[in-house]
Design goal:
The structure is a homodimer of 104-residue chains. The first copy, chain A, is α+β, with helices and mostly antiparallel strands and 104 residues long. Helix content of chain A is 63%, strand content 13%. Chain A contains five helices and three strands; from the N terminus they run ααβααββα. The termini of chain A are far apart. At the A-B interface, helix 1, helix 2 and helix 5 of A face helix 1, helix 2 and helix 5 of B. Chain B binds a DNA duplex (30 and 30 nucleotides) through helix 4.
DNA sequence: TTCTCAATTAGCTATTATGCTAAATACGTA
DNA sequence: TACGTATTTAGCATAATAGCTAATTGAGAA
């Protein structure tokens, strides 16, 4: 397998590898949201949220649609939500091993 | 949902958000491998590969086992391999939209 | 013990990511 | 036109990553 494939994949992963961007992905699970709504959820300044959105857009994860002077973003590839299941499995196994380490 | 949950998830994502680390995860799909074998696959220096492995280990993705003077790593949570499917779906949809943009 | 090999850690530099404030754009309304 | 609101982009300072070489640790062999 070519290294460029892994580089492309890593770009997508990087576009999700930030707490605020994971919050955004989760928030968009139920449907589209404008930047101002996402800002409330994430709790950063509007420019910062906008930049996170732009990273996710460039990675092909979300898409924006203008309505008036607001821009509504939505998930393009909803399967990213299923990533959480696996990530949480990693976290659980981590906690299990941490507990074992304490016992031993 | 608490922000700390998203921070923990982001740590796991970050531990995979690098081409070399994705290559390592993929290589470990078929079973454990020592660092020297992974080095050949990744194509970086041994210290660099070792540091990638240590990041993945801290995130709870892999585990190492010493045998003689070699250390064999294995995937702790094999479901990370299923991530590739979704990531590739993102890449495909990206290419589709890029093609549409060229047509228009 | 001493030597060698595999792996990790230290120390450094270069690159990249993050988040802010301030400025620019886009759109709707008066 | 001019103004207000939502969003993006620029520019900057700080922090985090990545990769290298050199030094260190761990385990087996001579």
């Amino acid at each position: 397998m070519d290294r460029t494939v892994y580089e492309a994949r890593a770009e997508v992963m990087k576009a999700l590898a930030h707490p605020s961007r994971l919050m955004i992905a989760d928030a968009l699970a139920d449907g589209e949201m404008c930047v101002c709504e996402l800002q409330e959820i994430v709790g950063s300044t509007m420019p910062t949220v906008s930049r996170h959105l732009s990273q996710m857009k460039n990675a092909g994860i979300i898409e924006g649609r203008r309505d008036g002077n607001q821009i509504y973003y939505r998930l393009l590839v909803p399967c990213v939500l299923r990533l959480f299941g696996c990530i949480d499995a990693v976290l659980q196994s981590e906690h299990l091993r941490a507990a074992e380490a304490v016992e031993a």
